[in-house]
Amino acid sequence: MAGTDEDAVAAADDALYVLTAVLLTPAKFPSVLGDDYPEACATLGLAPLADGYGLVIGQDGSGARWTVVIDDVSLVAVAIASWDCGMEYDLSPDERTVVAALPGWPLAVAVAAPGVPAPHDPDPDVADCPPLTPPDTSTWGSAQRRLGADEIALQWAMWREQIVDTDFARPNGGSAGSDRGDMAAVDGRTADGATGDGGLPQDGVATDADASARDASLDRVPGAGAAAESPAGDSAAGNTAAGPRASGAAGKGASKGHSGVRRVLAEARAYVDSPPPLGRVRSSFASGNARTLRADGPGWSLVARTDDIAFVLLDDEPGEVLPVGRGPELPGLLEALDKMAVRPS
Q1: Which of 206, 210, 286, 302 has the least C-beta neighbours within 10 A?
Q2: Helix (H, G, I), strand (E, B) or coil at 292
Q3: What is the DSSP track for 81-120?
Q4: 241-273: per-residue pLDDT in tens?
């Protein structure tokens, strides 16, 4: 009986109490881990398989944090969809699907398994590698910038209603009216350094004078800057950090931010001719016939709807959210990006 009891204890310690799960695929991965799918995989020490992985996050019987990587993506997708609908789902991967058991958690998780010790890193003696830890989002940087873009994509309507057509400059220096086609934007000419038609301002994004654009702030959005990804796929039960707070503070110097936007649009346009690493441009469902586009690159993130404007966040513009007017060139760029983007299957 003693041997049986010891086996039972060992089995309990080996059991994984599942807390959450996320997809790690070219079309949907925790963006906090990287600008693209290969980078996110590399953060976890995984090869970027074409079909991707499912990450099952939980605790063992001793309370230690573990991330189990499986190649049964559909199983994790079904579990996430069930949880999103408020349904129970027992996520129990087959041992044959397990690719790796990694110590620690790559994302911040605010919940814990009941009846076991508080979450802690596994004993080094039982871990083959250093434990995973969530990226630091306590200060502005690439991880925080990507989380900010996640939040804008998730709360598009809330952000869009803070920006009105009159926030964008006309080529003649006046304000734009209700005709969205007249709104100035950073188009291909300005991205190449030319002045644009009729002296189109190099600014091209919401001017410093617009109060509503300056009010665009992730600080106003509940749960902004969450440092984890949920079963729903995006912001989750993680810790909260300060996110983007404004789209153009007066006195900051518009030229710097606008120059960065021109660089972003030029690099995004280059993606059309020279495809970037898988997952840097992703397309997801939106209302109507539109798509939500998400593009990332070195030091920048872009969020847009194919039927509307775009928002840009930059590593070197802490807390700033820069809206880009639709103008004559942005629609074509968004359409081209959408055609080459990775889409959920």
Answers
A1: 286
A2: strand
A3: HHHHTT--------GGGEEEEEEB-SS------TTSPPPB
A4: 445 554 543 223 333 347 899 999 999 999 999
